[in-house]
Amino acid sequence: MRRICAVNRYVRPVSGTLLRRLALASIIANVGIVVTGGAVRLTASGLGCPTWPRCTDASYTTTSEMGVHGVIEFGNRMLTFAVALIALATVLAVLAHRPRRPGLLTLAVAVFLGIPAQAVIGGITVLTNLNPWVVGLHFLASMAVIAASYALWRRIAEPDGPAVAVVPAPLRALTRITTAVGVAVLVIGTWVTGSGPHAGDQGAARNGLDPESISQVHADSVFLLLGLSVALVFAFRAVGARRATRAAVILVAVELGQGLIGFVQYFTHVPAILVGAHMLGSCLVLLAALAVQWSTRERRPVAPAPRAAPSDAAAPVTVTA
Fold first, then answer.
1. What secondary structure does DSSP assign to 247-316, as a single string?
2. pLDDT at 6 (0 to 100)
């Protein structure tokens, strides 16, 4: 027990600034793994390592016989370890932070555990020869980890008081609906990807959906999302919610950029470079939608507990002989 106390005496508490930087690094790293994962698929390197968790039946690493595709796929697998190390460092930083913050450890652990879960799904995609439904699930798992990383980053900067709404309840409901539609757009987008080219390998199967029909469904859902987002801009402005208005304007701008990329890639027969840009745009749309969600409420500092008045029993007593 004395040794533990002696060790704790020399452990320097982690500052809130460092903690927030680690959380931001986790967001960037997880977005990066989405983009590099897209590069694996777009270069037809999805089966560059034909098995999992090994790269080949006899080796955990790529071999010269596997060529550039093996290097690309193996490199993406190695990046997963870097992302996991950042997440682990964030968990340890949360544990070392003083004073302890409620809720931070849960979010940090969720991000950390989400990475091996995502890696397992990635392994299943290889073992199922890049089944398009599993590939889509792999992408959505990355989106979930990014959302948890963003929640942690925002929560670190907030005080520990209760969350208080800063816009009327109907607008908070509209914000939640908009976020839900944004998630639906991401899901349908994976169906579009699974029906078109860039399967990740020449022998990979497609999901069987008609590319033109499912692309139209995706476009309709994007128009719905854009309409809801524009409505949020005017609604927030009407109630004087400046911070929420700015967040909604940024969301609309990101959606317009993402929509432009989507239309150009559709009419130019889905070039690989635009598909990669579209995957990055999907991450940015998610982050912008979450920013709008956070802008509808705020946390205020916890009021210090009032000091108790000294009791009569504590008053000095004079003893006389």
1. HHHHHHHHHHHHHHHHHHHHHTT--HHHHHHHHHHHHHHHHHHHHHHHHTEEE-PPPPPPPPPPPGGGS-
2. 45
- Judged on CB neighbours under 10 Å (0-12, 13-18, 19+), 146 is buried
What pLDDT is stored for residue 274 in this prediction?
A: 83
Range of the domain at 185: 165-298
Distance, in Å, from the CA atom of 119 to the CA atom of 125, rounded to the nearest integer, reads 10
| Domain shared by 131 and 185, yes or no | no
Q: How many structural domains compose the chain?
A: 2
Among 98, 127, 161, the domain-final residue is: 161
Nearest 5°: CA angle at 136, between 174 and 218? 50
Q: Is the peptide bond before 53 cis (omega within 30 degrees of 0)?
A: yes
> Which of these three, 106, 139, 161, is where a domain ends?
161
Enumerate long-range contacts of 66-69, CB under 8 Å, 24 or more apart. 68/43, 69/43, 69/44, 69/45
* Position with higher pLDDT, 124 vs 301: 124
Place of tokens 């890696």: 119
In tens, the pLDDT along 180-205 reads 999 999 999 999 888 877 656 566 77
**139 shares its domain with 185:** no
Q: Are 152 and 179 part of one and the same domain?
A: no
Q: Which residues contact 310 (CB under 8 A, 6 or more apart)?
A: none
- The predicted model scores a pTM of 0.84
Q: Quote the pLDDT of residue 295.
A: 95
| Upstream peptide bond of 99 is cis (omega within 30 degrees of 0) | yes
Helix (H) or strand (E) segment spanning residue 163: strand 163-165
Q: Is residue 7 part of a domain?
A: no
Write out pLDDT tens, residues 103-155. 899 999 999 999 999 888 988 988 888 888 998 899 999 999 999 999 999 99
Same domain, 157 and 172: no
Which two tokens mark 44?
Answer: 């037809």
Q: 57 vs 266, which has greater pLDDT?
A: 266
